[in-house]
Amino acid sequence: MLLFGPVPPAQWGPPPDRPRHQALWVGPGAAGSGAGPHPALAALDVRDVLAAVDRVERVARLPRARRLRVGSSRP
């Protein structure tokens, strides 16, 4: 699990076609002070993070060929 930000996932997040990577973002929020985590990162809900971990773990258990199909727009 890697948390980074506060920029939008479309700008610096993983490619959306990779289901083994989940991007969570709560929005820009207030500017950080440089001391401690940025407020936008601190605003991530723990339940949302754990749900993303569960999704990634489920995908990781799939055979490689199926993992690739899960992330694509093909049937």
Brief characterization of the structure:
This protein is mostly helical and 75 residues long. Helices cover 41% and strands 0% of the residues.
Q: What proportion of the residues form beta strands (DSSP E)? A: under 5%
Low-confidence stretches: none
- Radius of gyration from the CA trace? 14 Å
Q: End-to-end span in angstroms?
A: 28 Å
The number of helical segments is: 4
If you average the pLDDT, what whole number results?
77
Q: Residue share in helices?
A: 40-55%
Q: Which structural class do the helices and strands define?
A: mainly alpha
- Overall, the morphology is elongated
H-E order: HHHH
Largest sheet: none
> What's the total number of strands?
0
Describe it.
- With 75 residues, the chain is mainly α.
- The protein is built from 4 helices and no strands.
- The longest helix is centred in the C-terminal third of the chain and has 15 residues, at 46-60.
- The chain is elongated, with a radius of gyration of 14 Å.
- 3% of the residues are buried.
- The mean pLDDT is 77.
